[in-house]
Design brief:
The chain contains twelve helices and eight strands. The protein is α/β, with parallel strands linked by helices. The chain folds into two domains: about 180 residues, NAD(P)-binding Rossmann-like Domain (Rossmann fold), CATH 3.40.50.720; about 80 residues, N-(1-d-carboxylethyl)-l-norvaline Dehydrogenase, domain 2 (Orthogonal Bundle), CATH 1.10.1040.10. An eight-stranded mixed beta sheet has the order 3-2-1-4-5-6-7-8, sandwiched between helices. Helix 6 links the parallel strand 5 and strand 6. Helix 5 packs parallel to helix 6 and helix 11 packs across helix 12. The longest helix has 20 residues. The termini are far apart. Bound molecules: nicotinamide-adenine-dinucleotide. The site of nicotinamide-adenine-dinucleotide has 25 residues, from helix 1 and helix 5.
Length: about 280
């Protein structure tokens, strides 16, 4: 299957960077959002990212201009769905909204189009039936910031066809990413499960007073070679996001080990969300 046109739904944190990544790799890309303001903000952020890459000598001006010319924007889902070979849905994390989007995609994309969701917590089986073509649906899970992070988890649901997996993997590779295949749906996929296990142990060590937050972070960096300590990373991701993912995972598995950690919940309740709020496990000026 030849994929030339990609539709990215949702122009927020993830969607705008996924769309830019597609456009930079030569795909005709439409970035769609119901919010005109989100599209304006996305364009502004991407233009400023492009300028900074050019001034650092990391991107040719002509390549940047060509990529921005390949990237169009729309608030009209029905119209933009009509020409897509691949859709990457990165709208807000709400099942009812995603289901409605997949119904519309099933009705308005060409019959060959592959429909992927970038959701971190909703496996594609939750929206696959709504599209009417479950064998052409999978998760295509990028990491934040999507223009930088190399990993893309391609997660198949029970009905996902090999052709779908191959096509999505090929696109991820063309974007300069390193796709990995998750053969079976599982909450958190690979990366968030591993990160969850490390975070849980770090939180337990801190809660029991075994070591300070700073020393746990230092150990992760100097003994394990991690670029950031778990507390630094949680502060960067946002403690509300960590809490939300744990809640969603616990709702799915019912496993006590997946329950949001009390240290995180206390911080969230106190409005200490990490870097974005000025304080989390560490203060930020
Ligand atoms: N933020 C992350 O670190 C991260 C990482 C990997 C995956 N994800 C996943 O990516 C998706 C988007 O997350 P985000 O952080 O970019 O969210 P965000 O809140 O930054 O952006 C969501 C966007 O979706 C738009 N939207 C809402 N309803 C819509 C609709 N019906 N049609 C089109 N657009 C609609 C909103 O206007 C908003 O611009 C989620 O499924 C999330 O699980 C997020």
């Amino acid at each position: 299957m030849t994929i030339e046109r990609i539709l990215v739904i949702g122009a927020g944190t993830m969607g705008r960077q996924i769309a830019m990544s597609c456009a930079l790799s030569g795909y005709h890309t439409v970035l769609q959002d119901i919010s005109e303001q989100a599209l304006v903000d996305a364009r502004t952020e991407l233009e400023s990212w492009v300028s900074s890459r050019i001034s650092k000598g990391k991107l040719e001006k002509s390549d940047a201009e060509a990529a921005l010319a390949r990237l169009s924007q729309s608030t009209n889902l029905v119209q933009s769905a009509g020409t897509a070979d691949l859709v990457i849905e990165a709208a807000v994390e709400r099942l009812d909204i995603k289901e409605q989007i997949f119904v519309t995609l099933g009705e308005h994309t060409p019959a060959h189009a592959i429909l992927a969701t970038n959701s971190s917590t909703l496996p594609s089986s939750r929206v696959a039936q709504a599209s009417g073509r479950p064998e052409q649906v999978c998760n295509m899970h990028f990491f934040n910031p999507a223009l930088v992070m190399k990993c893309v988890e391609v997660v198949r649901n029970e009905q996902t066809s090999d052709t779908t997996v191959e096509a999505v993997t090929e696109v991820a590779t063309a974007l300069g990413k390193q796709p990995v295949l998750v053969n079976k749906e599982i909450p958190g996929f690979i990366a968030n499960r591993m990160m969850g296990a490390i975070n849980a142990e770090a939180l337990n060590l801190a809660e029991q007073g075994i070591a300070s937050i700073k020393d746990i972070d230092t150990t992760a960096k100097t003994a394990l070679g991690h670029p950031m300590g778990p507390f630094e990373l949680m502060d960067m991701v946002g403690l509300d996001v960590i809490d939300f993912i744990a809640q969603a995972t616990y709702a799915e598995t019912g496993d006590e080990a997946d329950k949001p950690h009390p240290l995180i919940s206390q911080k969230v309740q106190a409005g200490l969300l990490g870097r974005k709020s000025g304080e989390g496990f560490y203060p930020y000026s």
